[in-house]
Amino acid sequence: KDEDDKEISRFLFPKKPIDHEKEPTAGVSYNITVYTGDKKNAGTDARVYVVMHGKNSSSSQIFLCDGKFEKNSVDKFTTDASSDLSPLTTLDIGHDNSGVGPAWFLDKVCSDYLRISNLSKSLVQD
């Protein structure tokens, strides 16, 4: 389907969640990598955000600042979590529909759980 479905938010589910409940929670951060697709007018001028959901809690809206979200681009972010959300169960990604060109073709998004020099893949949606 080549037409925009006009949705500004997506719910993404992990291929396979990794349970980090037995790991210490100090220094919990998440890397978020956003891939904008390679189609005409794929980029967005809107403010993009994520909400991460874990087994027992969720983050607030986290705006991904300094992202360009241009056609065929990869934007990377690191965010500190106020609490350990692992295992991640879903990741919502959306935008506020602002800017001159708010439409957006999101190809995929990845989230990595970080813990003091330990990188574990916890959520990938293709």
Q: Would you write up a description of this structure?
A:
This protein is mostly beta strands. The protein has no helices and 8 strands. Mean pLDDT is 78; it is low at 17-25 and 116-126.
Provide the CATH superfamily. Answer: PLAT/LH2 domain
Compute the number of helices.
0
H/E element order? EEEEEEEE
Largest sheet: 4 strands, antiparallel
Helix/strand/pairing class, anyone? mainly beta
Poorly predicted tracts of residues = 17-25, 116-126
Q: Quick check: average pLDDT?
A: 78
Cα radius of gyration in angstroms: 15 Å
- Secondary-structure arrangement, i.e. CATH architecture: Sandwich
* CATH first level: Mainly Beta
According to CATH, what is the topology? Lipoxygenase-1
Strand content: 35-45%
What does this entry show, briefly?
The protein is an all-beta fold. The chain has strands spanning 9-12, 28-36, 48-54, 62-63, 74-80, 88-95, 106-115, 118-125.
Features of the shown structure:
126 residues, mainly beta, four-stranded antiparallel β-sheet, elongated
List the helices and strands and how they pair.
Blueprint: E1 9-12, E2 28-36, E3 48-54, E4 62-63, E5 74-80, E6 88-95, E7 106-115, E8 118-125
Antiparallel strand pairs: 1-6, 2-5, 2-7, 3-4, 3-6, 7-8
